Amino acid sequence: MDLHITGDSAADQLLSNDAFALLVGMLLDQQVTMESAFAGPEKIRTRIGSMAPAAIAEYDPAGFVEVFKERPAVHRFPGSMAGRVQALAETIQRDWDGDAAAIWTRDDPDGREVLRRLKELPGFGEQKAKIFLALLGKQRGLQAEGWREAAGAYGQQNAYLSVADIVDQESLKKVRASKQAAKAAAKAPKT
Questions:
Q1: Banded pLDDT at 98 (limits 50, 70, 90)
Q2: Quick one: fold of 9-156?
Q3: What are phi and psi of 60, to 5 degrees?
Q4: Between 20 and 30 A from 187 (CA), which of 36, 50, 54, 93?
Q5: Dist CA 71 CA 175 (whole Å)
């Protein structure tokens, strides 16, 4: 099943075919639109010629920041996010032999174990890990036992809470509406 997150066919194809690119898109998904975050891996691949964890981990850090700054920028915070992407690449290279998909496939883990492994990655807290787990289950064919429960609310069918639920323009609108409602509720005065 191909992903349809960015509105750019090349970026979506990379996300669909490259587990590390998908992880990087999730990592970049903060303080920018989902489409911009998940388009980031294709910008990186185009600019340095690779999305291989080893290539990114070994890239000159100052040069990698420049890759992020090139217009259109990979992220609005190029310095910190370039560093986070390199830290993620180093972790995938060192701990998972450069194979990001091993996080959710090696030793046939259940949903709780996949969540635990995701939370160990640089830049992946509880919420980001749960959203990514839901994305794997809903759109990437993850069959790990208990993944829905481990993903919490993001694992529910037709939740429309995150990128895990985006399959077309209509679902994107529903996710945006739920995010706006959540922000409004968070800003509302407590009574």
A1: very high
A2: Endonuclease III; domain 1 (1.10.340)
A3: -55, 125
A4: 36
A5: 28
H or E element, residue 178: helix 169-187
Q: Concatenated DSSP letters for 99-166?
A: -TTHHHHTT---HHHHHHHHHTSTT--HHHHHHHHHHHHHHS----TTHHHHTGGGGSTT---SGGG-
Residues 146-153: contacts with CB under 8 Å, at least 24 apart: 146/110, 146/111, 146/112, 147/110, 147/111, 147/114, 148/111, 149/111, 149/112, 150/110, 150/111, 150/112, 150/114, 150/115, 151/111, 151/115
Residue that the structure tokens 């980001």 belong to: 128
Cβ atoms of 83 and 28 closer than 8 Å = no
Predicted TM-score (pTM) above 0.85: yes
pLDDT of residue 191: 67
Q: Give residue limits of the domains in the chain.
A: 9-156
Q: Among 18, 104, 6, which residue's Cα sits nearest to residue 53? A: 18
